Amino acid sequence: QVQLVESGGGLVQAGGSLRLSCTASGRSFNTYNMAWFRQAPGKEREIAAAINWTSGLTRYVDSVKGRFTISRDKAKNTVYLEMNSLKPEDTANYYCAIRTRNSGLLPPTALDSYDYWGQGTQVTVSS
């Protein structure tokens, strides 16, 4: 079993920045990919960004490219999401996810590719 604990959400004005953190813990697991998904009210959960734990290769949804940066600290088993130039449409509950099964070079973006999920942290961007 793997536990994921997120932090860093909050309320920010449009154009502002936030940094989300997610730390994984548990017994005897391997981290192959980690990702941030988001879900706005009335909408389906979607990928925001994902990272391959070994190579550091990243993927982003088009709407956040150039504004969000995903990174990881392997020693701390922690993934970060730096969010800049935030827009009201970025308002959502942000979920951290981890894949503990081996995969290819690029991190997957499908929900069912990930094995464990955090509880989510709310990000609200006011106009």
Name the features.
127 residues; mainly beta; seven-stranded mixed sheet; four-stranded antiparallel sheet; 0% helix
Explain this structure to me?
The protein is mainly beta. It is 0% helix and 50% strand. The protein contains no helices and eleven strands. Strands 2, 4, 5, 6, 9, 10 and 11 form a seven-stranded mixed sheet that branches. The radius of gyration is 14 Å and the shape is globular. It starts with a strand and ends with a strand. The mean pLDDT is 96.
What does the overall shape look like?
globular
Number of helices: 0
Please summarize the sheet with the most strands: 7 strands, mixed
Q: How do the SSEs run, as a string of H and E?
A: EEEEEEEEEEE
Helix/strand layout:
Elements: E1 2-7, E2 10-13, E3 18-26, E4 33-39, E5 46-52, E6 58-60, E7 68-73, E8 78-83, E9 92-99, E10 116-117, E11 121-126
Parallel strand pairs: 2-11
Antiparallel strand pairs: 1-3, 3-8, 4-5, 4-9, 5-6, 7-8, 9-10, 9-11
